[in-house]
């Protein structure tokens, strides 16, 4: 690489390529959503229902291109597009593969729109993608949206699929109180225990958030071989709370949960939160580097050695992924950035119009 010393690239351990067009001005609900379930219903679950193949492709290419330019060399995506399930992971994989992003992809199965049939289709998409394994830079996982939007049967099927294919689970875990309350109403101590009971807490699994887990639960998840992913900007934006108990484990990585993949911005939110919550000086910023360990569990130890960046001051000027030059002199080599941006702007207009036209969920 160039004269400046190469350093490890950032691995974004939990994000959503489907929200890549949000920076173009997501249509806002008529009044501010009062709580997390309302934020999901009026914003993110409207966005995912409005996605089709074309808007998803534009969203993924825009997100991935800018993530690479910001020094992200790998990402763990959690995908949902209920009107376009079959083949959706190929759209994301093609975007990552073409632009040179290492990625671990899953479809987040859920019953929130179409019941068990919807969940079966989501898991089938994971199965299809995991078995095809067509691209050197891309791997698959089994996805579940969250405990509170799936039945015991879907949880058990997801666990069985992991064992059959040697895969891991990627799921939102205790992001908001609603996930804990739901699991308790179903007779479990919490969503983590519900996952365990269903045989779906397979080693290596990725639990996004864990805001409402306690230290005992965090340690138990950790000793079961699971990862937790802290997403401080998203947690602030959604006002779900501070993920205090994550400090009880070293198996915690950093994710941006759909926010632009800029490590420095996520780290700033982490440091501000740690200072505000009395957890400064506890080494939480080490989470920014742990995504590489998380991703290496899917790609093999040493597989990420060629995923490096170079900087001039704070600016990322060079990016290599798997030894392939992706960015030089701050410019993307693997795609036409102006065309990607123009496609994204045009797709955002279509997507936002579809969102406005959707009936309430
Ligand atoms: Zn998420």
Task: Describe this protein's structure.
With 361 residues, the protein is an alpha/beta fold. The chain has one domain: TIM Barrel, CATH 3.20.20.140. The chain has helices at 36-50, 53-69, 88-99, 115-132, 152-165, 177-185, 191-197, 215-223, 232-238, 263-276, 287-299, 337-357, and strands at residues 7-8, 10-15, 72-77, 102-105, 108-109, 138-140, 142-146, 169-173, 206-209, 227-230, 252-254, 308-312, 315-321, 324-328, 331-332. A six-stranded parallel beta sheet has the order 5-7-8-9-10-11. Strands 1-12-13-14-15 form a five-stranded antiparallel beta sheet, with helices on one face. Strands 2-3-4-6 form a four-stranded parallel beta sheet, with helices on both faces. Helix 1 crosses helix 12, helix 2 (53-69) packs parallel to helix 3 and helix 4 runs parallel beside helix 5 (152-165). The radius of gyration is 19 Å and the shape is globular. It binds zinc ion.
